[in-house]
């Protein structure tokens, strides 16, 4: 609803500028005024506001100078025009959805773009962040891992890739599209000592990979 009203307001602002410019011929100005009034009436209808009754030139009818029968007939005509516009908009939307679905179904494969902004997790040592797609019903991963090495300072190990941690999961075909659920899973592996509290330098180990955490989206 918000997007629809926003588009209508943008159209009205543009048309108002054209009317105030004073450069339009009379016939184009008349047609533009009809478009403006039709857009306003349509907007009032989808917002459940009162319908404004107008004459053929788009001017609001004065109930003090217009008979009741004329007002009733004008109201019927205006209601019919608005309903026709609503049906036309609905039909166009359905056609767009059908074309979009047909185009999507005809595509042999599709992709998922991922942009990693930050890892908010207090680890204390270096870590590996692995992201992948998972089928919760079949209990298996359906993609390779996207690996990002994260330092204990809270930044990527490869500092040149800061704010540029992007990946594309490609070659997801129609079989994946038919899956009932697909989850996006992020795993964190700590890389360092056996125990974080191991302060004995004689027993200090390094480079050991230990599972630290996991998160995932609900199946979609």
Word description of this protein:
- The relative contact order is 0.10.
- Strands 2, 3, 4, 6 and 7 form a five-stranded antiparallel β-sheet that branches. A two-stranded antiparallel sheet has the order 1-5.
- The protein is of the alpha+beta class and 220 residues long.
- The protein is built from four helices and seven strands, in the order αααβββββαββ.
- Helix 2 (26-46) packs across helix 3 (68-106).
- The chain has two domains: 1-105, Substrate Binding Domain Of Dnak, Chain:A, Domain 2 (Up-down Bundle), CATH 1.20.1270; 108-216, Immunoglobulin-like, CATH 2.60.40.
- The longest helix has 39 residues, at 68-106.
- It is elongated.
Please supply descriptive tags for the structure shown above:
Substrate Binding Domain Of Dnak, Chain:A, Domain 2; Immunoglobulin-like; 220 residues; DOCK_N; DOCK; coiled coil; two-stranded antiparallel sheet; alpha+beta
Brief account:
The protein is an alpha+beta fold and about 220 residues long.
- Mind telling me the C-alpha Rg? 31 Å
**SS field, number of helical segments:** 4
Class inferred from helices and paired strands = alpha+beta
Total domains, how many?
Answer: 2
| Main sheet summary | 5 strands, antiparallel
Total beta strand runs: 7
Strand-residue fraction?
A: 15-25%
For the record, give the distance between the C-alpha atoms at the N and C termini, rounded to a whole number: 25 Å
Q: CATH fold name of the largest domain, please?
A: Immunoglobulin-like
- Low-confidence segments, given as residue ranges, are none
CATH architect. name of the largest domain: Sandwich
Summarize the helix and strand pattern as letters: HHHEEEEEHEE
Instruction: Based on Cα principal axes, name the global outline.
Output: elongated
CATH class designation of the largest domain: Mainly Beta
Give the fraction of residues assigned to helices: 25-40%
Coiled coil: 72-99
GO molecular function: guanyl-nucleotide exchange factor activity; small GTPase binding
Organism: Acrocephalus arundinaceus
Keywords: Coiled coil
């Amino acid at each position: 609803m918000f997007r629809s009203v926003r588009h209508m307001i943008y159209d009205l602002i543009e048309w108002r500028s054209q009317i105030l410019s004073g450069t339009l011929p009379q016939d184009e100005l008349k047609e533009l005024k009809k478009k403006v009034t039709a857009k306003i009436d349509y907007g009032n209808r989808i917002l459940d506001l009162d319908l404004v009754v107008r004459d053929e030139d788009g001017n609001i009818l004065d109930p003090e100078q217009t008979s009741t029968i004329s007002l009733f007939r004008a109201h019927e005509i205006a209601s019919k025009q608005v309903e026709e516009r609503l049906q036309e908009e609905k039909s166009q939307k359905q056609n767009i959805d059908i074309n979009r679905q047909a185009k999507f179904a005809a595509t042999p494969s599709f992709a998922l773009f991922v942009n990693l902004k930050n890892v908010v997790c207090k680890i204390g040592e270096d870590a590996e962040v692995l992201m992948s797609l998972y089928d919760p019903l079949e209990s298996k991963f359906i993609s390779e891992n996207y690996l990002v090495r994260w330092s204990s300072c809270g930044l990527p190990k490869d500092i040149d890739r800061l704010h540029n941690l992007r990946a594309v999961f490609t070659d997801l075909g129609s079989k994946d599209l038919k899956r009932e659920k697909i989850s996006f899973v992020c795993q964190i592996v700590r890389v360092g000592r056996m125990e974080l509290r191991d302060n004995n330098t004689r027993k200090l180990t390094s480079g050991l990979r230990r599972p630290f955490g996991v998160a995932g989206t609900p199946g979609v």
